[in-house]
Amino acid sequence: MADVPSSLQAEAALNDTEPGAASVNGTVKFVATLEGAAVAYGSLVLMALLPIFFGALRSVNCAKSKNSSDMPETITSRDAARFPIIASCTLFGLYLFFKIFSQEYINLLLSIYFFILGILALSHTLSPAMNRVYPTNLPNKQYQLLFTQGTGETKEEIINYEFDTKDLVCLAFSSVVGVWYLLKKHWIANNLFGLAFSLNGVELLHLNNVSTGCILLGGLFIYDVFWVFGTNVMVTVARSFEAPIKLVFPQDFLEKGLAASNFAMLGLGDIVIPGIFIALLLRFDVSLKKNSRTYFYTSFLAYIFGLGLTIFVMHTFKHAQPALLYLVPACIGFPVLVAVIKGELTELFSYESSAEVLPHTPRLTHFPTVSGSPASLANSMQQKPNSPRRRRTNPSPM
Fold first, then answer.
1. Range 9-18 average pLDDT
2. Greatest pairwise CA separation for the chain in angstroms
3. Is the dihedral of CA 348, 349, 353, 356 positive or negative?
4. d(C-alpha 139, C-alpha 118), whole Å
5. d(C-alpha 211, C-alpha 263), whole Å
6. What's phi and psi for 157, nearest 5 deg?
7. What is the pTM of this model?
8. What is the DSSP string of 88-149?
9. Residues 36, 349 contacting (CB under 8 angstroms)
10. Across the chain, what does the average pLDDT equal?
């Protein structure tokens, strides 16, 4: 399955709908009340925090897993340095596509792709919960889906999926959500897929050390600022791209309920990019064996501060903001300051997350087009889906 460009996910695509009545060329513009905006932005913040918190916790178990199907993808400094360049090329390519070709057909193809990818991501997300709630008195049969090529001694396994009844239940529920999204494009279905993408990204994409995290966040800091403030490319693509690559919440929810249609939105990249750095700090906390989560909670609170500042500035200046402009300094600066105060700066930057993962952990050999995007998740899900699960017979080298 080829990578799908989704560069706009690195964007802080928060809706810049202005509160207050307005009329442009005789067209009445939506009026966002203060209460409606507060509910929308508060919901976005809450939805952003959930996949970061639980994804970080799951990343610790993922790193310690001895099951090769659950191994994380490791992002190296070289990968991190290439991220902004490839993301920029992809973003501009999407911009040209939307300018040249019919937006309707492009979004139809992307909808089909994210329909499949979303089902896999949501199934993987629900799997741990299903293991806890599945009735013990019901049968849980084991299945295997095996594809080979060749015959006799030359026979080679191509795909070897192992799954059970619990996995099929997760897959069935995820398929219902997928059909709902494909047919209705409802914002709740969009958010279910978006949350699944974010949680899987934080869980399965691992930075190998803090220096790599600084390179990644620093590069995307420049990328985000340039494409939002320097051009109209980012905002144009964000508004044209119909796919669950952003979380949305209606600002008219109090008036129209589930039928509301005027959305504030937050790109998944503004969740996953800081999220994988926060998850790295949690694994560092665990490695210290001090029964403390100082760096994790510091960075988590820094993320809340940075996202809140983004919303405040956006609401004040009535213009879409690059969230990484505020999130990157906060998520890097606060933990580094704590490390300086505690005298653990050397330990922080010398920590190698990949050292705690088994030697056969796959490196990020297929570079995703957008950090933390469904494209990067596609690589992860192709190599190690949990629902259904696949046993890797030829793991990628480091």
1. 37
2. 75
3. negative
4. 27
5. 36
6. -75, 130
7. 0.79
8. HHHHHHHHHHHHHS-HHHHHHHHHHHHHHHHHHHHHHHHHHHHHHHS-TTS---EEEEEEEE
9. no
10. 80
State the amino acid at position 89 in one-letter form. Answer: C
Which residues are catalytic, by number? 224, 270
CA distance 162 to 174: 18
Q: State pLDDT tens for residues 276-318.
A: 999 999 999 999 988 889 999 999 999 999 999 999 998 888 7
CA distances 340 to 15, 275, 299, 303, 305, Å, are: 37, 22, 14, 19, 20
Ramachandran area for residue 241 (φ above 0: left; ψ -120 to 50: alpha; else beta): beta
| Strand (E) or helix (H) holding 74 | strand 73-75
Q: Which helix H or strand E contains 191, and what residues bound it?
A: helix 187-204
Yes or no: say if 200 and 267 are a contact pair by the CB < 8 Å rule: no
pLDDT at 29: 58
**Tokens found for residue 151:** 């015959």
Looking up tokens 């064996």, which residue turns up? 289
Beta bridge partners of 390: 161
Q: Is the omega angle on the peptide bond into residue 388 within 30 degrees of 0, that is, cis?
A: yes
Q: Quick one: pLDDT at residue 384?
A: 42
Tell me the one-letter amino acid at 380. S
Which residue, chain included where needed, has tokens 């015959």? 151
Where do the domains of the chain lie? 34-82+177-350
Sequence letter at residue 352: E
Which residue is it, tokens 């629900």? 126
**Inter-residue contact 207 to 216 (CB < 8 Å):** yes
User: Token pair for residue 98?
Assistant: 């939307």
Element (H, E) at 295: helix 294-317
Residue with tokens 């008219």: 252
